[in-house]
Amino acid sequence: MRTKLATLLCLPALCLPLAGQDATQAETEALVKEAIAFAKTNGKEAAIKEITKVGGKFHRHGGELYVFIYDMDGKVVAHGQGASKIGVNQMNAKDPDGVEFVKERIKLAKAKGKGWHDYQYVNPTTQKRQPKTSYIEVWDNLIFGAGIYKK
């Protein structure tokens, strides 16, 4: 009993360093692939609902790492920052440097089917614009993606 209690008391101390770590490119890519696998198994609608659910299985690092889905016309299909973004056409969205990041995302999706692209975006944990790189992958004519903030 004491051993179990000691283990339980030490567990937060062991997990704390992991919670504070920044997301990696490998983790980001794996999260996108996990979301696509979820959609293949459970259907698009279930994936859209789970991706958009705040604190759902496709949110990591306190909400800083999340999945999004766009269609090939730039419309948001699902977004880890909430349902208010769904249905909004972001085709002409520009970051502070003038980068039309959704157009770049679509261009990459059509040309290669997957890959990384850079832009600026508001970090939900700091509420500040930061350089961001996102990994995207096409499945069933939808662009699944997730991004990490560069520190």
TrEMBL record:
Coiled coil: none annotated. SMART domains: Cache_2. Keywords: Cell membrane, Membrane, Signal, Transmembrane, Transmembrane helix. It is found in: Cell membrane. It is a multi-pass membrane protein. This is Cache domain-containing protein. Residues 20-103 form the Single Cache domain. Its main location: membrane. It comes from Candidatus Geothrix odensensis. It comes from the Bacteria. Residues 1-20 form the signal peptide. GO terms for cellular component: plasma membrane.
